[in-house]
Structures are given as structure tokens and as C-alpha cells.
Amino acid sequence: MKLSQQQIDDFNREGWLFLPELFTQEETALLAREAEDIYAANRAEVWREKSGAPRTAFAAHLYNEAFRLLGAHPRMIEPIEQLFGERVYMHQFKINAKSAFTGDVWQWHQDYGTWKRDDGMPEPRAMNIAIFLDEVMPINGPLMLVPQSQNAGDLKASHDLATTSYPLWTLDEETVTRLVRQGGIVAPTGKPGGMLMFHGNLVHGSSGNITPFPRKIVYLTLNAISNYIRTPTRPDYIAHRDFRPIETVDDDALLRLARAQRQAAE
Amino acid sequence: MKLSQQQIDDFNREGWLFLPELFTQEETALLAREAEDIYAANRAEVWREKSGAPRTAFAAHLYNEAFRLLGAHPRMIEPIEQLFGERVYMHQFKINAKSAFTGDVWQWHQDYGTWKRDDGMPEPRAMNIAIFLDEVMPINGPLMLVPQSQNAGDLKASHDLATTSYPLWTLDEETVTRLVRQGGIVAPTGKPGGMLMFHGNLVHGSSGNITPFPRKIVYLTLNAISNYIRTPTRPDYIAHRDFRPIETVDDDALLRLARAQRQAAE
Fold it and tell me: pTM for this structure?
């Protein structure tokens, strides 16, 4: 799995890159099923909306075999190591639900601001990855990105504790308006298995979801090992302290697990 | 302005019909400017979001010349009279803001349920019309319709007083899921000036708007004169009591006003 020079240039200019259907239907169907089991569990890593619907589940790669394989998958890890020219470790691993009917908004924000302020991450040399577990449509709350906004650096943000159940450092309307005037908004959509990667300073957000179509994504952060966090303040299931480089699994490891589980069920 | 037999058949089967760019850029630019003036005014007909941003302005056709002309425009009135085989009057006239950044959700609902319960409207022989004053995009909270759901009749609904600042009779998740499985969801988008018409029993809703792009639409209801409301309970700026058939203005009346205003400003 190697990015082309064109893809690398696109990423460096626009701050994001989308690889449709990078994972197969069999692989993502397994992950989607496992995600539902995780959401159903009553554990500290599963955060909920005001409605009680799941909002995000942290660190599933540490307690679920399918997500462990995904978190070490060469189709995901190798392009990021190629872009950074360095090995990476898992800084954060979430499964964001954006549940049918009740999935709530994520206001406009950058992620690196939080990693710097809360975790002591030195540089924005960490990559956001979104892997689609359901079909992402224009109508079920797709991630919206502001292309080129990574060039604006680390913007002033306010801690929003009111809008939703999840505290977030969010940007003001004037700043978002200015950046959108320059770069527009894109909202990549597509079948389960697509992988969206974007820069830690890229401005992004998402609307609520009132449709009957859930929009689960795995949303994780791969950090360059030299850029490990220095002064973490958040629980380690949110900001991980295992800074060892990820050892990738075989390219077919997830597929083999899916087939083994299906055989066991037959 | 006449609908083709194909358009009439489409409407009868799907419950909605979209006419892109029915009004010109000059006409809609005038209406968009006038809408901003109306929102800025402090009057009982202007309802606001919890944030204070405008949500909807009622009855502007009764106190604003541009909206008076729109409310009697032949390009809008004639297709509806053609579909009903009868003349129509204005039952309700709103300008819905769906403001940039703060525009809030409208949960899934049918309109005829409210007209029946609150206004005593005998039959669903009233047409919903949405005229785009801004560009409607997938990302700024377009109206979402469930095609063919008009065939489900008047569905059981609950009065939602909690979700937003606007009380609404909304449908439960099981019902919406079932109807979407049958008919899907469409979200017509396009430039200012487009006109969307849909059946009074068609299930619809819209997500919030966190983008810098406002999504103002004129949202009005034309009722067949024989179907006038019998037992109104809401203020007459919400459910009108003038049951006389609309006398249409000239096709170029709105355009002439736009040009006159522009000349006066030069």
C-alpha cells in the first residue's frame, strides 16, 4: 500500500485525502457488528449522547480483536508512515457512532489544539484517520472538512461544554467563515470501508443525524513516534501512553478473522 | 406555467416535485435582501432559535411588498391550481431561516396533522411549497423528504416541545424507519429560485446547519378554497382566515419591483 506522488501532493496542498473502499465489505461488516457489541456494553470507555445513544467508544483496539487488527493494519499504517517518513504509534482510537435519529453535532474544531493543550504534543505531526463502518451519505452527518485550513496553524479556540455531551475546543464563526471563503467545504461520502485521512490542524465538524441511517466511523490518530506526548492530562484510554511503533499485521488478518467468525456461526 | 403530464404523474406517485430555478437570480436576490430586513425587525411574527438567531418569520406577504408579489405569483399558483383542479388561498406563509452556524433541526413530521388538529382543515388538499432564497446544498440543512409517504395517511404523532424552540407534532423512529425503507430519502438541492412542492402528508424534516451558508426558504401552504379551515385555534398570522382565492399578479411583477428598487438605489 503506497500513495502516489499525486496523492502526496494533494494531501500536502489540501490537507486531506480520501481512499474509497480501502477495506472490503467482509472486513467492514465484521467491524460494524463488533462496534454494536461494544456500544451495548456498559464500560467507562463508551461515552453517550444526552439521549443515551452511544456517541463514541474509546480504545477498542485494546479490548477487541477485530479493532486490534484494524489498528495495526498495513493498508492504514503504511501510507501514514510514508507521509511522515517515520514510524507511528496509536495516540487515540475512537468509534464514533453518529447514531440514527439522535446523532449529535460536532462543532467546528481542529484536533491538534486539544492534543497540544491537553496532552502536550509538540508538533501537529499526527494524522487523523476516519474509516467508514456504515455508508456515509450527505444526509447522515458526514465529516465536513475545510480544505487548506491546516495552513492557518493552531487557531484560538473556546472550550464548548454546552452544545453536546462531549467537551470540545471549538472555533468562532468569523474564523470558520474566513477559512471556508478560502478553501470551501468538502464532505467525502461513500460505502463502508472508505478511509479519510486529514491533517491535525485541518478544521472540521459534522452536523447531527436525524435519518434512520447510522454513520459509524472509526476515528483514530496516528502520531509520529518522535512526536510522543510530553505532558498528558487525560485518562490513558483517551490519550495513549504506549509510544512503541505499531507492528503491522498481515494484510489479510482482518479478512481471516471475519471468515473464521462466519464459519463458527454457521 | 403548466405542468406536463409526466410532472403530474411524478407528483401523484412520489408526493413531491421540484422545479429548479423557477424564479430568476434578480427576483430571489430581492427576496433574500427583504428577508434579512424582516428578520432584523422585532415583531411578533418573527420567531427565534434558542440562540436568538431567526428561525421563521410568519405572514410576510401581508406586510412586505416583495413577498406579497411572491405570494400571488402565477409561476407558483398556476401549477397548484392545475393539480387541485380548483383555486387556492394562502393558508400559511413563512420564511424559514436555517441560519448559518446555528440553524436548528426540524424533526420528522407531516404538516397536514397540524392543520387538521390545530386548524380544523377537512382534507389534505393543501400544498406545501418551498422556494429557495439561498443556494440549498447537501451541507446546509436541506429539506429531506420521504417519497411516497403521503400514502401512509395521517400518522400518529407526539407533540415535541423539547428539541427546538418550535413546537411540532413529530413522528416516532419506528414509523420513519419503515417509511424510509419503502421510499428512501430525497433532499433536493440547487440555486436560489428553485421551487419544491410536496403533499401535505409527505413526511419531511431537516438537520441543523453548522456551515457559514444560510439556507433561507419561503415555506408556504396553498389550500384549495373548498378545504378552508373550520376550527382555527392558532393566531391568524399563523393560520390565515382570508379564504378568498388568490388573484395572481403579472409574471414580471416581482422582476419590475427588483429593478425599480435597484434603480432607486443607484
Answer: 0.92
